[in-house]
Amino acid sequence: MTNAGQPPPAAEPPAAQSRTSEQYTKSLHQACTESLQTDLFSRIHYQFLSHYLKSTSRYGPPTHGPDRRASVPASQTHVDRFTYVVVHTISNGTIKRHDFDHKLGLDEFWAFPEAEPNTDQVIFVRGSLSPAWLELLGAKYKVDPEFFRRHLQYLSQSDYSDLPPLPSASTNSIFLPVTSLYTRSLALSEDQVRRQRNEDNDIARNNQQAIRQKATCGESVIRNVSTLSDRLLSIEHDISIYIRERKNGSRLAIVFLDNGLNLNRSDGPPCFSRHNSQIKNHTVHEISLNPILIPRPNTVHISVEHPKVPEHDRGHANHVGSFCNVMSLLPFHFGMSLNQKTLSHTPRPEITVLLMEVFQLVASSECQFLNRVYGVAKEQRGHSGDERRMEPALNTLVYIKTLLDEHRPRLQQTMTFLSCREISGSDPVSSTRVPCTTGTSQCVPQGELSSIYADFEDLLSRNKSLGDFCVESMDLIMNTALLKESRKAFENADDQKRLMILAYFFLPLSLVSSIFGMNVKEFGTGSQHIWLPVVVLVPIILFALTLSHPHYFKPLTLMLTKPWRPKT
Fold first, then answer.
1. Which of 106, 325, 389, 476 is the least crowded, having the fewest Cβ atoms under 10 Å away?
2. Higher-scoring residue by pLDDT: 57, 271
3. Confidence band (pLDDT; 50, 70, 90) for 58?
4. Domain end position, chosen among 480, 503, 526
């Protein structure tokens, strides 16, 4: 059972929260300052995170007492409101939801009680992280800075070549890609497609730089942009999950969603801006979002009523020209597929099972991506007989193959994470983990996780098959091009042969004509008879004929060149 968004309960902060959120930043900064590259467990790679925590956020809520956060007006308009953090508390077979605003909800969130013993909390955070919220989340839930570093890797300007990490370093966190498809109403030309692909990285980079400079919260983060065809493009967001088990038996899962505020806002970070005069009105009228279709489980009736979304968030999603992804609405619809039996099961299910809807969203988006990409690759394969389309088709197939190679490790990491999170044992507090293995010999999860594991296993198989299909299509196009070039070469050789045959006859004729010309006695212009040029021309023609067709005269030449032997 899921309750609609409720105001936070009026409760005093627990004693454990007598600490301040600034202590999290101070301890991290001290660790980075003291750490050296020669340390066994170096912390130098947290420096950018420490610097970001010290930056000033545009959305700094008012606090009691001295703080570095700037204040904002207490009154907010309907448009300014945005539910940034959604907390679901799971206890006694029920789910209670509490919403927190991105500007004025920080103090309320800090005072919100933590999970009681043997209960679970799932915390959704929508969009980019401001320093103030990042600091508070880290201090309140004692989040490992490594999780923040990996999620905010797009803000770092240093690369230590340690990502993606080893499976043993990711047992309590996972970073899932969600690929959203967009369709253009106007098809691009081949030159425009090539130009767009060169600019795709700039779009993601400009979006990330704008978020880093403003240090705001709630903005939608673009990880990657890919122009798949003349009408189809994809945008990649991340869902980052951090799981922690407390000493009192409570568990929490923090879910960071890259998708927050509408991507197409006029005052938002760069999204689909193109510095190209040939593409006009590159806004909502040109690009539309394709919905991610999540299969409805058997536990959800077709006429089920979705939990209510706050009016201001529904306004963001339904705004004209909105690119609001279903991922941004996931926090409000969380728990719809969890039945009473699962929630009240003893012992409690692995907390990953409670996040099944998150994994289903990721798997569904990847499934749609692979299906659409297969259609594009199949279309390019059909251009194998068109000489004008061969080169663009090869470029598209190489581009798709590169994208598939980039998606494959993420699928493998998800399968490894699921296999590592499988729990066995009857004690709900002290449970035993199944050892995690790497490589191909992974332990396949049983029970609730087996279905989602099977989905990602199938997606990985499809990814590999589609990659092979692209390679086969490229080979087919290149072989077809080689055959066409060979056919052209044969035709050119035949043309040259005909010219050579003509040359064998006309060159001797022109030679004799140039020597004798019209100087013959019968024409009254010379002393030679007219039959003399003919007599001279005949043996020359025969000799030229022999050279032009040697195979016809081979027996004769062999007989003439054969050495003579006297008979004995």
1. 476
2. 271
3. very low
4. 503
**What's the pLDDT score for residue 171?**
86
Question: Is 404 part of any domain?
Answer: yes
Token pair listed for 445: 């999860």
Nearest-CA neighbor of 503 among 451, 470, 472, 547? 547
Residue 392 to residue 390: CA distance in whole angstroms: 6
List Cβ neighbours of 506 (8 Å cut-off, separation of 6 or more). Answer: none
To which residue do tokens 């925590």 refer? Answer: 53
Q: How far is the C-alpha of 337 from the C-alpha of 419, rounded, in Å?
A: 22
pLDDT in tens, 322-364: 666 788 889 999 999 887 777 877 788 889 989 999 999 999 9
Q: What is the 8-class DSSP label of residue 229?
A: S
CA distance linking residue 498 with residue 494, whole number of Å: 6
Q: Which residues lie closer than 8 Å to 121 by C-beta, 6 or more apart?
A: 87, 88, 89, 90, 114, 115, 250, 251, 252, 253
Residue 101 forms part of a structural domain: yes
Please answer whether residues 219 and 150 qualify as being in contact, where contact means their C-beta atoms are separated by less than 8 angstroms.
no
Residue 561's contacts (CB-CB under 8 Å, 6 or more residues apart) are none
d(CA 245, CA 348) in angstroms, rounded, equals 13
Alpha carbons 199 and 242: distance in angstroms, whole number: 33
Residue 542 lies in a domain: yes
pLDDT the model gives residue 543: 74
**CA atoms of 358 and 239, how far apart (whole Å):** 8
Q: What is the pTM of this model?
A: 0.80
For tokens 């990649």, the residue is: 236
Instruction: Give the three-class secondary structure for 148.
Output: helix
Pair type for strands 432-433 and 224-227: unpaired
Residue 3: predicted pLDDT? 53
Give CA 47 to chain center in angstroms. 27
* Contact assessment for residue 292 and residue 159, using Cβ atoms and an 8 Å cutoff: no
Residue 173 bridge partners (DSSP)? 242
**4-18, 47-61, 233-247, 346-360: which range is least confident on average?**
4-18
Domain that holds residue 260: 15-346
Domains contained in the chain, number = 3
Helices 448-516/356-381 angle, 10° precision: 20
**Could you say which of 459, 479, 503 is where a domain stops?**
503
Cβ atoms 349, 341 nearer than 8 A: no
What is the C-alpha to C-alpha distance for residues 440 and 416, in angstroms, rounded to an integer? 10
Q: How far is CA 470 from CA 191, 312, 478, in A?
A: 22, 45, 12
Q: Kindly report the backbone phi and psi dihedral angles of residue 90, in degrees, each rounded to the nearest multiple of 5, phi listed first.
A: -105, 115
Computed from CA positions of residues 187, 191, 193, 199, in that sequence, does the dihedral angle turn out positive or negative?
negative
Residue 435 has pLDDT above 80, yes or no: no
Rg (CA), the chain: 37
* CB of 357 closer than 8 Å to CB of 337: yes
**How far apart are alpha carbons 428 and 430 in whole angstroms?**
6
Q: How far is 161 from 150, CA to CA, in rounded Å?
A: 12
